[in-house]
Amino acid sequence: MSDSASGPVSESASGPGAGDAAIRMLTAGSGELDDDALWQLYAPTPRDSPVLRVNFVQSLDGSATVQGLSGGLGGPADKRVFDTLRALADVVLVGAGTARSEGYGALTVAPEHRARRRALGLPEDPAMALVSGRLDLDPASALFAEAPRRPLVFTTSGAPADARGRLAEVADVVEAGTGRVDPALVVRELHARGLAQILCEGGPSFFGDLIAAGLVDELCLTISPVLEGGHGPRIATAPRTATDGSATGGSSMPLGFELGHIASSGGLLLMRWVHRDGDGRPA
Ligand SMILES: NC(=O)c1ccc[n+]([C@@H]2O[C@H](COP(=O)([O-])OP(=O)(O)OC[C@H]3O[C@@H](n4cnc5c(N)ncnc54)[C@H](OP(=O)(O)O)[C@@H]3O)[C@@H](O)[C@H]2O)c1
């Protein structure tokens, strides 16, 4: 875990919202953020220090979707941040549910981001990694067939052998758990492959697993100025381990985060939150 280029705004605190009780307006910075400024704002330093960053958009009333998809929540500004975060990552990690519902294609970044990556000595596109128990993923889909880099698929020892065999033709299939994929093993495997900057794009189930495992270093969260009405899921779902299917497991203690920054665009709030340890320091 590491600090990043722009350090957290708040001072040390011992609990959620504790510490400095003063209330201040968060006044806007001087000017517009162009793509270079966005790149600098989110760029991790140093790059080789491992960070697991998660990116989500949610409605004012806490929904991760509108009519089953995240697309109704974001806008052009959120997309610019989304693209910037992708371009800064060594690997984009996503649950199979998100890849299926959002129709993930091959992971490529825009030419201008490729140029920025080349200048840092990085491969032109980040790697792609999926998490799936059932392996209900189509090897002929663009996600695999058009991928510039061979994707990784993390699964369990109990994954269906036939699906595993088919996927192994187009991806590196890695066992990382028995009943469920263990996110700590995933992170270890990614690090072992030199992929230190991990961007997780969800979804809620996998984010819940990451939280329960205490692996989240940063959350980039966009708040969209809409009320969804309570139909969609929250951005995190606790792991379901009880026999009755109820959500259990993981820590019930809230994990503390410090504000990295808030930017805004047309009513969207674009925030970056950095995990801190119990002493209020960035973890
Ligand atoms: N607002 C946002 O920013 C945002 C971001 C992402 C997604 N979403 C939305 O969230 C919804 C999808 O939610 P979701 O919770 O289903 O997403 P998800 O976490 O991406 O997908 C769940 C699926 O991923 C696999 N998976 C996740 N964790 C696993 C583990 N530890 N071990 C084994 N397999 C694991 C399983 O796939 P198998 O079934 O293949 O075993 C599971 O069924 C969609 O509507 C999507 O649009 C919103």
Task: Give the structure's gist in a few sentences.
With 283 residues, the protein is an alpha/beta fold.
Describe the model:
The protein has one domain: Dihydrofolate Reductase, subunit A, CATH 3.40.430. It has a 9-stranded mixed β-sheet with strand order 5-4-3-2-6-1-7-9-8, sandwiched between helices. α6 (161-168) links the parallel β4 (152-155) and β5. The chain starts with 34 loop residues before the first helix and ends in an 8-residue tail after the last strand. The longest helix has 13 residues, at 76-88. Mean pLDDT is 89; it is low at 1-7 and 242-247. 24% of the residues lie in helices and 19% in strands. The radius of gyration is 19 Å and the shape is globular. The chain has 283 residues and is of the alpha/beta class. It contains 8 helices and 9 strands. NADP nicotinamide-adenine-dinucleotide phosphate is lined by residues 56-58, 64-65, 68-70, 73, 94-98, 101-102, 131-134, 136, 180-181, 201-206, 209, 237.
Let me know the largest β-sheet.
9 strands, mixed
Give the averaged pLDDT, no decimals.
Answer: 89
Q: How is the largest sheet built, in terms of strand order? A: 5-4-3-2-6-1-7-9-8
- CATH topology-level name: Dihydrofolate Reductase, subunit A
Oligomer: single chain
List keywords for this structure.
nine-stranded mixed β-sheet, alpha/beta, disordered N terminus, Dihydrofolate Reductase, subunit A, 24% helix, globular, 19% strand, 283 residues, binds NADP nicotinamide-adenine-dinucleotide phosphate, single chain, 9 strands
